[in-house]
Amino acid sequence: xxxxxxxxxxxxxxxxxxxxxxxxxxxxxxxxxxxxxxxxxxxxxxxxxxxxxxxxxxxxxxxxx
Length: 65
Hints:
single chain; 65 residues; alpha+beta; two-stranded antiparallel sheet; 52% helix; elongated
């Protein structure tokens, strides 16, 4: 088996990570998933221009409509 390439980008920044095996690639993704998820949610919430909602769930529901 060859190397598994993982590419991550954010605007002008980008990073390549290589893993020797599929399980190693899954381990890398598992370690980075919480940070990526948090950044995605922060970006989503930052796009709201409406008045404050009662909860984060309300914000997400409003944005997804």
